[in-house]
Amino acid sequence: METLWFWLIAIMLAGYVILDGFDLGVGILHLWIANTDAERRTVIRSIGPVWDGNEVWILAAGGTLYFAFPALYASSFSGFYLPLMMVLWLLILRGISLEFRGHVTEPIWAKLCDAIFWLASVLLTIFYGAALGNVVRGVPLDANGQFFEPLWTNFMPSGQTGILDWYTVLVGIVALAVITLHGATWLAYKTEGELHSKSVRAASAIWWLVAFFTVALTLVTFLLLPHHFDNFRSAPWGFIFPLIAIAGLLGIAWTNGRKDKVAFLASCTYLAGMLTSVAFSLYPNVLPASTDRAYSLTVTNAHAGEYGLKIGAIWWLIGMALAVGYFRFVYGTFGGKVSDVESDRGAEY
Amino acid sequence: MQDALAVDRLQFAFTVTFHYIFPQLTMGLALLIFIMKTIALRTRDAMWDDAARFWAKIFGISFALGVVTGIPLEFQFGTNWSSFSKIAGGVLGQTLAMEGVFSFFLESSFLGLFLFGEKRLGAFWHWFSSLLMLVGSWLSGYMIVLTDAWMQHPVAYKIEPNGWFGLQSFWGLLLNPWGIWQYAHNMIGATQTGCFVMAAIGAYYLLSVRDTNYARLFLRTAVITGVIAAILQLYPTGDVQGVMIARHQRPTLAAMEGLFHTEEGAPIAIIGQPDVQHQKLDNPLIVPDALSFLTYRVWTAQVEGLDQFPQSDWPDHIELLYFSYHIMVGLGTIFIAILLLAAILLMRGKLFDSKAMLWTLMLAAPLPFIANTAGWITAEVGRQPWLIYGLMRTSHGASPNVAAGNVWFTLLGFLGMYGLLSIVFLFLVGREIYRGPGPAPAALTSD
Prior knowledge:
The structure holds 2 protein chains of 2 kinds. Chain A contains 13 helices and 2 strands, in the order αααααααααααββαα. By secondary structure, chain A is mainly alpha-helical.
């Protein structure tokens, strides 16, 4: 049962990264790709009706994590106290700048909102990457399953670690490249004309960076943290996940500029492959200890009572089936290139 | 870490109080917008559509703020209250996760459709989106109230072998009687907020002699809905809450009422300042025997005072609890009076010309926010000293590994951030009110 929940939460988190990833990527890119106010509005309109729903995935994943693995929720949220609070502030600034940009027609207001939207998107992406880096590297858990990390210590990924060290910063920068590419493929899919060709060019330029980083980060991780290779050794079928990621990455290069929708889906595939590879290598740990492996939080010592997990599986399946239905409906209603569409709230974007 | 505990509490209190300004407005407006869209669908009168569109803008701004200020609350369960979360997550995680899975997806999807899709969806599906927005936001409220209700009145749980609380019965948790009544009371409170805000803007337009057709429509919708809500707020929902507190949270009732000594035929104090040190009320203005009757339906029944309970079980802010309860009840009574009078004037066709009533309605807009906030303070301060009533004390719930300095850092950050949000909110809503509900001039729509 707890293994099932491990994978359900991994899927929800991957869903979050894929969905909110493209609107984060749009936030990172829009200052370069869209130069006039009209272009900016087109870019923002491409995510306007969906970004809020995308962000809900992290809330739903967080709630599910809380209910299935309360000890993990308690330990990781209090241990990552500072970066999580900063993520909250960035989410607030980002949501507000995006949602309220169109409410005032003054150009100076739009410029301010664009700048905040960009900055919050960049920092959030780096923080999320660094957070993933922390989980992969492990945290200094004590015998009670608790830890507290300051923002940084000596930037080394061992001993009394901070949130930021050279390894987690590296993961943050890789995340920035990956999410930027993801956003570029979304924009290429949703826009036409000048915006479209700029997005395609951006995607092909960043692709090389992402390809390089993917290889480099994989090598660094296995040199620094060789135990992450154990699961692949004992269950070689797990190589399917990195293969999916590689297929996605090659797929982007293959279709970028020719089949926009396929290129975007390939980017989704790449992200899904990368994240499931990480989940596969972590299992059964949910939060590895850097201090003593025995202190690690695992699916076995962190999960809630059996009855609750079983009941939860029933309503979770119903709820998520409904959610997928809404998403299909929303994306269907707002499908197609955005510049074809006359927005109902034209005055607001 | 005792010194962090006070800051943990302060931060949660501040962030949750600020947050609840917005959901009470959006849950109330969701109902009123749905009513407007229903009338629009039946009468095909474009004015009701315009009116709904105007309120949807204010709804959208408030909803965005409700979402962004809501996330920190769910996070704080883990960040600041990790001991509590670890032990209670197996139960409380159910309702919190269900809120995410069942209502957030619904709300956010159909809000997007409602705000952006009026032309694409057509009249029926746009109406349908407003219905699902209502269902989503009210369902969200239910899950949150259930979460609180379990902390007020824990049911359907068992103690797992490792000492954590686990779920015993799913339906027991979902149908917690405390939760059902608290929810009804809370949602009616939110409806009143929506009604008072709508009536205030209607009154403002009438008094400023602009958009008068819309103003009348707002006033009619708000006053009729509001008067029903104001009465339901008192009876049965408020009444049942009081009886439940008398049964399950006995020290809380005594503290709320400022009843220090056990009495037969206990009075209700309408005015009076509690002096906890000397265990008395200063300058009390009382209704004799009323508390006994309201609690036990017998004028001479004995009501336990605080002297019946060990001081360690007293709520730790008796003054705050006493005043927030009295403010809530006092304002609730004033709301009934204002809205009954307004409804009578409306029936006689005099409301739109009654300057005094229009001024009253315009100026009353902040009051329901205060009443709802005071109600929640009553519930949460009244739950003290327990985090989970009778099971876990608040002092045992905080994160042991997060130092006070880190919490001060983030609390000050929230103060700054929310100060900024307040300014943006007032500015944007003010602008929408100034623009008004009428069809926009051509220059704005030709984008």
